[in-house]
Specification:
heterodimer; A: 312 residues; mainly alpha; MetI-like fold; two-stranded antiparallel sheet; 14 helices; 2 strands; globular; B: 368 residues; D-Maltodextrin-Binding Protein, domain 2; 2 domains
Chain lengths: 312, 368
């Protein structure tokens, strides 16, 4: 048993070791500019990965924003509100959806959702919602410290070339992909809330909705874990994202603009990369993605477990 | 209850099976048997492994099947992976032969001194676009193409495009540019052409398999570009010529150095390679660029694709099989090029390549 645990640790260390050793060339070449630079130009030898980091974070958090409320709502429905005869088959169906290969979602996004976003949705949003955010952005810009950055971000949120492919489509496709994960784990967390608690709430005169809210509060940590796992899947998603995101290095949160992520760049450019620095830069991207996922998971664990709070 | 997981597993399996292929289907529906069978050489027995360029993959598949049919004990497999991977793998001796759309650079050749470049096919890069309502084929010249892909020409009714197409009602909308998101030999050829014809492009972008595109969205693979151009109205992109019969996109004429507007037909590509040979664009190792050549019928964005092999083979049996396979590819196999929309290698080039294959040996002993 201990040996197996050791093997897992060794595998982790091996992956980290290879990533580190093969990316030193590029990191020495670019320095800290690797993370902060915005130009990815293999011909000129400039490797700045910030737009990819931004794209990864933007699409993943957008997906979480869209998927978390829906996932929790479905989980609540399945455990608290739906009749027994509906809950079981619906649960099975959702778990099957979790097993659909991501390439399928990518293709569906390209052929079905992209034209839908290009014609009715994005122009409508640009016409009706963009002015509101433009106004809000204008309000924030004069404020000190983060004001200018946040102001610009809010201002450009609903702008972009509107070709269908881009951050919004990637966010929506990723959201659809992570909803089953969030539903499955949230459902388990909600089912783990003891029956006595629910019955006590009913006994005290709570309505069905209040009982459900109470159960959700008890299952908070589990739901948070569901969100983290969903986010983790979204961060690493490669093929579905590369089909729908447009593959242009953009570092502003323009929903209608094409963008790029860490995970989509590596398999796209690695086969044709022949200069050693270029290959090293791509492996460094992998290292950055690894570090990013690690940080997100660590952050989530800290929030769940709060080791700084002394346990009595 | 058991039926639901079974049915869904079946659906998933079917979808996965359909997702495998990334190469274009054959152009001619009737050609399932090669029109030019390979010669049978007695005593050949080997398992050959190749990888590299995906541009040549559909043609390579036809060649290796035809050769194995005639020489039953020779098994040849070719996986793609990209020209860069092919060049790297042949240097590390991980494969017996590699396909590459670009010749090895000086640095790469220094690590692989005895690797020979055998040209096997040629193709062109097509300018594909999607203009609903425009039925005439558009004409482009080097300034127009460079301007569009640099982002200096942003609208379809720009004066430069209108001057080239005076009889066409060009819309006043923005041009949506599509390029490759992945590294590719097609990109290498296209940017090589642009670097030659546009000093602006040469200084701002340069040439390579992966470049920093000033404008446009990226699609994955030639079929990805084809799909994006097909789906997004008012878009323009570049495609390898072997894909144009699959994607239903409009193709433009490109003005060559001699001032003629030429389509990317196999004849025009062959003319370009001939012109390149005549102009000594290929060195004695048969490496070189065939873009922007002279000649009234030459297509300006054309390139040769090579098979890389080691001159000094370590295994005599493999060496013999490899030499025989390359001999087939250079002669009888060329008949398979044009039906698949690749151009043939000109005869003078074949003669030189034949000499290279003849120079291969194993442990000092000649193979043929």
């Amino acid at each position: 048993m201990a040996l197996v645990a050791l093997l897992v640790t060794l595998a982790f260390a091996a992956v980290l070791g290879v990533l580190f050793s093969r990316s030193t060339d590029a990191l020495a070449h670019a320095g800290w500019g690797f993370l902060t630079g915005s130009t990815w130009d293999p011909v000129a030898g400039a490797y700045g990965a910030w737009p990819f980091v931004f794209g990864t974070l933007f699409t993943s958090f957008l997906a979480l924003l869209l998927a978390l409320p829906i996932g929790i709502a479905v989980a609540l429905f399945l455990t608290e509100l739906s009749p027994r005869w509906l809950a079981t088959p619906l649960g099975v169906l959702i778990e099957l959806l979790a097993g659909v290969p991501s390439l399928v979602f990518g293709m569906w996004g390209v052929f079905y959702l992209a034209p839908l976003l290009r014609k009715p949705v994005e122009p409508w949003l640009a016409k009706h919602v963009a002015p509101i955010f433009h106004f809000l952005g204008g309000l924030l810009m004069p404020l000190p410290l983060l004001g200018p950055t946040l102001g610009v971000w809010l201002d450009v949120l609903f702008t972009g070339p509107k070709i269908g492919l881009g951050f919004l489509l990637a966010g929506v496709v990723l959201a659809i992909m992570i909803v089953p994960t969030i539903v499955a784990i949230s459902r388990d967390a909600l089912l783990a809330v003891p029956r006595l608690e629910r019955e006590a709430a009913h006994a005290l005169g709570a309505t069905r909705w209040e009982v459900a809210r109470n159960a959700l509060r008890s299952a908070k940590t589990g739901v948070f874990a569901a969100g983290t796992l969903g986010l983790g899947r979204a961060l690493g998603e490669t093929i579905a994202v590369t089909l729908v995101i447009g593959n242009v290095a953009v570092a502003l949160p323009k929903l209608f603009s094409p963008g790029q992520t860490l995970a989509s760049t590596i398999p796209a450019q690695l086969p044709e990369a022949s200069e050693p620095v270029f290959v090293s830069a791509l492996i460094a991207l992998g290292l950055v993605l690894f570090a990013l996922t690690l940080l997100v998971n660590l952050g989530a664990r800290l929030v769940i477990e709060r080791p700084w709070r002394k346990r009595a | 209850m058991k039926l639901v997981p079974l049915a869904s597993a079946l659906v998933v399996a079917l979808v996965l099976a359909g997702c495998g292929s990334t190469s274009p289907p054959p152009a001619s529906p009737t050609s399932s048997t090669p029109s030019s069978p390979a010669p049978t050489t007695a005593g050949l027995k080997a398992d050959l492994l190749g990888d590299g360029s995906t541009f040549v993959a559909p043609l390579m598949d036809k060649w290796r099947v035809a050769f194995s049919d005639a020489n039953k004990d020779v098994k040849i497999s070719y996986t793609g992976g990209g020209s860069g991977k092919g060049r790297g793998d042949i240097t590390k001796n991980l494969v017996d032969f590699a396909g590459s759309d670009a010749p090895m650079s000086a640095a790469e050749q220094a690590n692989a001194t005895d690797v020979l470049h055998i040209p096997v096919a040629a193709g062109g890069v097509v300018i594909a676009y999607n203009l609903p309502g425009v039925t005439q084929q558009l004409k482009f010249d080097s300034n127009a193409i460079a301007g569009i892909f640099l982002g200096t020409i942003t609208k379809w009714d720009d004066p430069a495009l209108k001057a080239l197409n005076p009889d066409v009602a060009l819309p006043s909308d923005d041009i949506a540019v599509v390029h490759r998101s992945d590294g590719s030999g097609t990109t290498a050829t296209f940017t090589d052409y642009l670097t030659k014809v546009s000093p602006d492009w040469a200084s701002k972008v340069g040439k390579g398999s992966t470049v920093n595109w000033p404008v446009g969205t990226g699609a994955n693979g030639n079929n990805g570009v084809g799909q994006q151009v097909q789906q997004i109205p008012l878009s323009i992109g570049y495609l390898g010529s072997e894909w144009t019969n699959v994607s239903k996109v409009q193709q433009g004429f490109v003005k060559n150095k001699a001032g003629q507007f030429v389509p990317a037909s196999t004849a025009a590509v062959s003319a370009a390679i001939d012109a390149a040979l005549a102009a000594n664009a290929f060195d004695q190792d048969l490496k070189g660029s065939a873009t922007n050549q002279d000649g009234a019928g030459s297509y300006p964005i054309a390139a040769v694709t090579w098979v890389l092999v080691h001159q000094h083979q370590t295994d005599a049996a493999k060496g013999k099989a490899l030499a025989a396979f390359l001999g087939y590819v250079l002669h009888e196999g060329q008949a398979l090029n044009e039906p698949l929309s690749y151009a043939k290698i000109p005869a003078s080039m074949v003669a030189k390549a034949e000499a290279f294959v003849g120079s291969m040996d194993a442990a000092g002993q000649p193979l043929r």
